[in-house]
Amino acid sequence: MCRSIKTLRPPAMPEEATEADIRAAALQYVRKVSGFRAPAAHNQEVFERAVEAVAQATAELLDGLEIRGAGARQAS
């Protein structure tokens, strides 16, 4: 697992994950999986599509999680 990716759900994160937090995690994931920190021009489009897809899937996951326990908030 990429160490730069942090847990984005409560209670690990005190406030709700922002769009920037989600995109940063998605970017780190795609970098790790692809092996490229910055893709070559001919790979840029597919790289960006992957980041967007992972960010969307992450946002959907966080929105759907039900967090239980003391002090935890539930997703809307």
TrEMBL record:
It holds the Pfam family DUF2277. It comes from the Bacteria. This is DUF2277 domain-containing protein. The lineage of its organism: Bacteria, Bacillati, Actinomycetota, Actinomycetes, Kitasatosporales.
